[in-house]
Amino acid sequence: MKKTADVIIIGGGIVGCASAYYLAKAGVKDIIVLEASRSIGHGGSSRNGGGVRQSGRDVRELPIAMCAVQKFWPSLSDELGVDTEYTRQGNIRMGKTEAHLRKLDTLTTNCRNMGLDVRMIDRKEVHAINPYLSDQVIGASFCPTDGHANPLTTTLGYYIRALEKGVRFYTDARVMALEKVRGQVRKVRMEDGAVLEADTILLAAGYASRKIMNTVGLEVPMYDEIDCCLVTEMEPKMFPQMLGCADADFYGHQTRHGSFVFGAVAGPEMLMDEDTDTVNFAHAATLGASCRAIEGYVPLLKNAKIVRSWTGWCDCTSDGVCVLGRPEETPGLVLACGFNGHGFGTAPAVGYMMAQTILDEQTLIDLSPLRYERFQEMIG
Length: 380
What we know:
Layout: E1 4-10, H1 14-25, E2 31-34, E3 51-52, H2 62-72, H3 76-80, E4 91-95, H4 98-113, E5 119-122, H5 123-129, E6 139-143, E7 147-148, H6 151-164, E8 168-170, E9 175-181, E10 184-190, E11 195-203, H7 208-214, E12 222-232, E13 242-245, E14 251-254, E15 260-265, H8 284-297, E16 306-317, E17 323-325, E18 333-337, H9 347-358, H10 374-379
């Protein structure tokens, strides 16, 4: 392993891979990506339901999601030379009770005020758009420009294109600490004792980012949450929309292949393997709860056979949105973490803007609402 680089990226997920690609595309020649596990995209990047969603987002995060949908996703398959399976046929966020509809209406109003094309639809319209939904669904929010994509091929696409441009990736490369040199974060200390050095370090390691940033005095109030995903056998073509629920019971879509991919918060976490490096299975109790929730909204899937299930860890912040940019107290360090389980859809825009940040360029949109210092302002 070479010990120096212009940029070191910690985390080989989609944000790390996308940032590496856009940096290399911009002409940065010497980039290292460090991934603690044995495979690229091992964490949330490959363990999600593929949502490319704008609706229902916090207003601080919404501009990034809109930017990703408008400027990146439509041409991303051509850009990366892989089929991302990007489909833009809308997102139906369903409700079964009046309380659900009030919650959805608030989210919809907030997003509409930010310029997003999203609206509330009644029982008749929701069933006209998707006749396969349960009669218990009495309304929904609908965003026609939302959609879904394949997390595996998209992450792999960024990885392959970054490799082609000379980015060096190292797996089984666990970072233990960051170190400062003359007040600037420049060094990365590895588990095997090796020390790497770069002009800029991008920390995009999911929940592991918290422990790593602690070594240079930073703290983001963050916790890890288990997310469960499942894939069914191929089913007859039913609908192209992304589905979600007011209470986040589950989310998912039908792939081009015909199988359904769904995700849900795992629930009884005490039943899960606590080793965050190896956890990748769904416990029967957790999986059963997710299946009952799905069946309650799409009754025809009652007898669908599950061919694969897995779990992953989400890096969740106390205020529900990610942390992006350069912390003022740690020159040389850039943060991109805390995506709360919905970072896949924004990843192309985030990766591009992390490259802009590292190159000291003005980012496509203002990222100041997501800066690290907001947590200190809450306390102060």
